[in-house]
Amino acid sequence: GDEFLTKELLSTVLSTKELFLNGATLHGKYFLRYAICSRNMELSDVEKGWNIISNATDAVFSMNTKTTGGTITSLAANAVTNGMKIEMTR
Which Gene3D superfamilies match (predicted)? Predict the structure, then answer.
């Protein structure tokens, strides 16, 4: 996918000043890293981070949609995730 949208997601998350992510490239694929490096980390910290990322992703998707023949298509869906399924599990 296009790195632009992934970088847009990074910028959107960082603009909240509530969560730190960084971008990295591995085998030519650009991705975002989220790491909690605290001995005091709790599940609620992970959930808060996930909610920030999810909300930012929704914002990026809503800014990158088009309507064709009455169908709304997200231009960002594959670019942000490189076609990978993202989900949070406990």
Answer: Aspartate Aminotransferase, domain 1
Cα 12 to Cα 56: distance, rounded to the nearest angstrom:
6
* Helix H or strand E encompassing 71: strand 71-74
- pLDDT tens for residues 13-32? 999 999 989 999 999 889 99
CA distance 69 to 9: 28
In terms of DSSP H, where are the helices of 1-90? 3-15, 43-63, 77-81
Alpha-carbon torsion (25, 26, 29, 33), positive or negative:
negative
CB atoms inside a 10 Å sphere around CB 76:
23
**Mean pLDDT across the stretch 24-49?**
90
Residue 78 has pLDDT above 70, yes or no: no
Q: Which two tokens stand for residue 25?
A: 């490239």
